[in-house]
Predict the 3D structure of the following.
Amino acid sequence: GTLFILTLPLFIPAIFFVGYFARVLRNTSMNEGPPEFNNWVDMLFEGLYTSLIVLAFNSIAMLSLVFGLLFVDVPPAYVLVSMIFFYIYVTPLPIILYMRRGSIRAAFDFSAIIKVYTTLQYFIAAVLSIVASVVMFVFILFVMAFFLSLPDIFAPLGVPVIAFTLYWLYVMWGGLCGNASNRVLGDNRYDIQRDN
């Protein structure tokens, strides 16, 4: 119970961020600009539902990781890289379908999912996202090393820099995959849940 209370101040902002990320994916899949921070209650629930969708899809990756480590003679690094690629490739589209149609069931529309996943544009978007993630990760390590080398009083200043970097990484990832999905799904408005 104590651990839950201590982590609650971090959990709630994370859910809001996931909700905003879901809106980024929806808007870019409609060829629109970044969404605004509004309708906080809706954003909270969108974040919760999106988290459940991500958990459902990426449980496959986790099971593959466990299977690869326990039953197959596969190097752990290879399994980990494969899981990361799976996460970056698979995660955005179910969220886009959920946000566009306003239904969790839409996230499991496998006909639409396969249609988008098998396009060259989506593959390129995923590869670019992975490259950007590696660059951002190296930058974050540099920032951490720099601020940790300073007197202790300045070390906390690295936190907002890292948070801002992660924010733009997710926005860029959502933009790349959202735009790639737009080429297949189009930007029809009849299936889109707005956040006015």
User: Anything to note?
Assistant: The two ends are 37 Å apart (CA to CA). Residues 40-71 form the longest helix (32 residues). Helices lie at 2-29, 40-71, 76-90, 92-101, 110-117, 120-148, 158-185. The chain has seven helices and no strands.
